[in-house]
Design brief:
The protein is mostly helical. The chain has 17 helices and no strands. About 35% of the residues are buried.
Length: about 350
């Protein structure tokens, strides 16, 4: 029940932060809305993902593939929604208000689903010391629970398998979200595309990613995650340098589409692997993933710094090491960790 309450409270704050963003009249309220948005998203979205993983521990790769597909649908729908709003005479405030309404609808669905589906926390094994400390008082019990969760997170970080999946998640993001963030600028500054052509390029990137996510969602239950990572890393090691080297906008966009399809399996496989590496600790997996994401935010900053210092082509060329790193991280598998057949 605790997880359900956190999901519902997070959803309420999530919707409220979107509404506050649409109504903000100055920088202060806008900043507060953005600050509230991050932890609310972690509670609403992150714990919902954890519940989905706990509901089918033997099908985590398939479920993560479906989750990733839903995210891609949202990524493609967002620009379409914004274009429709502007075509109807609205603005960005209307967009955030519509998103707040959609978040409230999702929150209502979570309420209807109830604890049978939303609240699936893994059983917590309290130590004898924690039980003695907790007693019958709520505050000491909560403190003991926090200490136990912190101990679980530290123990998970010491596990090489967990650390490997965390590193894979952050490294793979360099050719996923980080590259997507620089595609438009690259097409304009390096490929000499017009802003309209660059917008089409970003749309191709998102559309091809959606197609790749849909394809992997179909085959996720029939392929090994590690084999998929290795094969896609080999493909990306060929496609990404080709995208940077090949002249001509049309050729670049065709290769970019192929690259987007090839790398579609990276996030769902790595995230499912993280959940599997922390047995009975989906909440710990969410915490570690979020914490690693904060560290991984240095990726775009590093690319931007390199672009300013050495130029955008050089900065993006550095990302060519990503497929090599992913292939290397999938070579060794610790036998002491039990993973399902699809990983």
């Amino acid at each position: 029940m605790r997880r359900q309450r956190l999901v519902l409270v997070g959803g309420a704050v999530f919707a409220a932060s979107l509404a506050a963003t649409s109504l903000a009249g100055s920088f202060g309220p806008l900043l507060l809305a953005f600050v509230a948005f991050f932890p609310a998203s972690g509670a609403f979205v992150g714990l919902s993902q954890a519940a989905l993983m706990d509901a089918g521990p033997d099908r985590r790769q398939q479920r993560m593939a479906a989750w990733n597909l839903a995210g891609s649908v949202g990524a493609v729908s967002g620009p379409v929604l914004l274009a429709a709003i502007y075509a109807a005479g609205g603005g960005w405030r209307s967009g955030y208000l519509l998103l707040a309404i959609a978040a409230l609808a999702a929150l209502g669905a979570a309420v209807v689903v109830g604890p049978a589906q939303v609240a699936h926390p893994a059983p917590v094994q309290h130590t004898a010391d924690a039980e003695l400390t907790a007693g019958h008082d709520g505050a000491p019990r909560a403190a003991a629970g926090l200490r136990h969760s912190a101990a679980q997170a530290v123990a998970a970080l010491r596990d090489r398998e967990t650390a490997r999946w965390l590193v894979l998640l952050q490294v793979s993001d360099l050719l996923l979200d980080v590259l997507t963030g620089f595609v438009g600028v690259y097409l304009v500054e390096v490929a000499h595309a017009s802003p309209a052509q660059a917008a089409i390029g970003v749309a191709i990137r998102l559309g091809a990613g959606l197609a790749g996510d849909a394809l992997f969602a179909i085959i996720a239950g029939r392929v090994s995650g590690l084999v998929a990572l290795r094969a896609s890393a080999i493909a990306a090691a060929i496609l990404y340098p080709a995208f940077l080297i090949v002249p001509g906008l049309v050729a670049k966009l065709a290769i970019l589409a192929a690259l987007s399809v090839a790398t579609a399996c990276w996030y769902p496989v790595a995230q499912a692997g993280l959940y599997n590496s922390v047995p009975g600790g989906s909440g710990v997996a969410v915490f570690l993933s979020s914490a690693a994401g904060l560290a991984g935010a240095a990726g775009p900053l590093a690319v931007g710094f390199l672009a300013q210092r050495f130029g955008l082509p050089t900065a993006l060329a550095v990302l060519a090491v990503t497929p090599v790193a992913i292939a290397g991280l999938t070579l060794r598998r610790r036998k002491s960790v039990s993973l399902p057949d699809d990983l």
